[in-house]
Amino acid sequence: MTTAAAGSPRTYQVRTYGCQMNVHDSERISGLLEAAGYVRAVESDEQPDVVVFNTCAVRENADNRLYGNLGHLRPVKVKHPGMQIAVGGCLAQKDRGEIVRKAPWVDVVFGTHNIGALPVLLERARHNAAAEVEILESLDVFPSTLPTRRESTYAGWVSISVGCNNTCTFCIVPSLRGKEKDRRPGDILSEVRALVDEGVLEVTLLGQNVNSYGVEFGDRYAFGKLLRACGDIDGLERVRFTSPHPKDFTDDVIAAMAETPNVCHSLHMPLQSGSDDVLRAMRRSYRSEKYLGIIEKVRAAMPDAAITTDIIVGFPGETEADFERTLDVVREARFASAFTFQYSKRPGTPAATMDGQLPKEVVQERYERLIACVEEITWAENRKLVGETVEVLVAVGEGRKDERTGRMSGRARDGRLVHFATSAAGPTSALGATGQFGGAGSLAGQIRPGDIVHTTVTYAAPHHLNADGAPLAHRRTRAGDAAEAGRAPRTPGVLLGLPSVGAPAAVPAPTGGCAAH
Q: Which of 385, 497, 510 is nearest to 114 (CA)?
């Protein structure tokens, strides 16, 4: 038997690992497959016809995770002739033909530079009954020209650049995604407007190093200009960006954040280490004093700014004094949250061959101390918000306990996670269902993902806020309408330089014999 029902289109599933770039790439993979006639598999499906792994190569266990999952699929594929498995993303770019050697039941391997070729490669693998491995060394077309199936009705990623010109010694990404390539500002703003036209309220400008945007066309102030231009788009309520590099952070970006009303006062800026010696070994071209100076300027311009970061513990050669300096910077910076990592050796990076690789137990002990320090600070910073009114963009999947607690969840403008009560008490307002702000009494059963709620913080934890009183106001939005209708935004893209594939052939109806049983 085959996996698709007789006469029906082939189904697909995308499994994503890694960063926001990969999440957005997976939206493009879904858009490409649907443009080629595939249908997204539903959870109740026995098995999709095509499973695509979009992989990450940053962490040490990425390889084991992929090959473990491929191993689990091998017997499934044996039972379902016609099923195809594709592997893409950073690990595919790194391992290339090694994937098919280790897992010969894989049908397609594609890299970070040729996502758009996936439908063609799947068809070719089916026709030739042989694996297709295609890895390009440079970008084929800018990924945003590809059709995209957006996962959210209210928030969307918009890539402004791909690749990275930095040479951090711990990072394998530049060798896998290539040198920085910048999109033209007009193309970016056109995509943002297209999303807003579909009801999206929030966009996140995305790049490996967003604030070096403009390097390719020689304008070091291009990123600040882009933020200000986003402020002129009617209907765009929130603008975020990730991730900036401290070495490229300029005062005009701080001014643009402070002076553009729809740019959120939230900043994710990787620190990696508070030790200047470690930063030097990491080849991070800034020092702790500059980093803290940027934070000081941001808070002077935006006292309510929430600043988050990335920190690596246990980099080769890190001493106890180096680690203590990281704790000092954490205490001084007062982060709203931090993504913390134990150093992971990646083959092909300079750091992998450095002297001074630290024992696991030393790294683990420092990591636990860092977590304790970060949580002490984030909890104290969150407690300052108890009693404050926050604007929440209602989200999907942010609150794992929401069904049990009767709450809904979303993000405040500063990016903090808020779990809020939906119970209403007080006078009813007829405005609640008209798209305008209404009183709390109008809220029962009315709040949808993508809507806007104003509520008061009643409790703070290290990683979230609770608002357990009745919401103060609720605004129904076009994003909420789309969520209620089950309609996901799609951007069509322009398939530059790619052949037209058309819908994959449906499985023919059985005519008797073995196919009928």
A: 497
Q: b/e for 223-248, b at 16 or more Cβ within 10 A?
A: bbbbbbbbeebeebbbbbbbbbbbeb
CA distance 69 to 11: 19
* Residue environment code for 49-71, b if the CB has 16+ CB neighbours within 10 A, otherwise e: bbbbbbbbbbeeebbeebeebbe
* Residues 242/267, Cβ–Cβ less than 8 Å: no
> What is the average per-residue pLDDT within 80-108?
90
List beta partners, residue 417. Answer: 411
Residue pair 225/179 in contact (Cβ under 8 Å)? The answer is no
Using CA atoms of 285, 286, 287, 292 in order, give the dihedral in degrees to the nearest 10. -160
Task: State how beta strands 407-412 and 417-421 pair.
Answer: antiparallel
Which tens digit of pLDDT belongs to each residue from 194-216? 999 989 999 999 888 999 999 99
Size (the chain), residues: 517
Residue with tokens 């058309």: 502
CA distance 507 to 5: 7
Q: What is the pTM of this model?
A: 0.78
Q: Residue 484 class from Cβ within 10 Å (0-12 exposed, 13-18 middle, 19+ buried)? A: middle
Q: Quick check: 69 and 99 in contact, CB under 8 A?
A: no
What is the CB-side half-sphere exposure of residue 81 using CA atoms within 13 A?
A: 4
Span 166-193, pLDDT tens digits: 999 998 877 777 888 899 999 999 999 9
Q: What is the pLDDT of residue 346?
A: 82
pLDDT band of residue 493 (cuts 50, 70, 90) is: low
Give the three-state DSSP class for 341: strand
- SS3 string of 390-423? EEEEECCCCCCCHHHHCEEEEEECCCCEEEEECC
Find tokens 């970061």 and name the residue: 309
What average pLDDT does range 229-258 have in this prediction? 96
Structure tokens at 93: 């770019």
- Vertex 193 angle, CA 453 and 260, to 5°: 60
Query: In angstroms, rounded to a whole number, what is the distance separating the alpha carbons of residues 314 and 363?
Result: 5
Task: Tell me, rounded to whole angstroms, the distance of Cα 319 from its chain centroid.
Answer: 33
For the chain, counts of helices (H) and of strands (E): 15, 23
Residue scoring higher pLDDT (48 or 432): 48
Identity of residue 398 = E
Which of the four pLDDT bands, split at 50, 70 and 90, describes residue 50?
A: very high
d(CA 456, CA 480): 22
Q: 3-state SS string over 185-199? A: HHHHHHHHHHHHHCC
Whole-number Å distance between alpha carbons of 84 and 355: 43
pLDDT recorded at residue 275: 98
CA distance 142 to 181: 8
Parallel, antiparallel or unpaired: strands 306-313 and 337-342: parallel
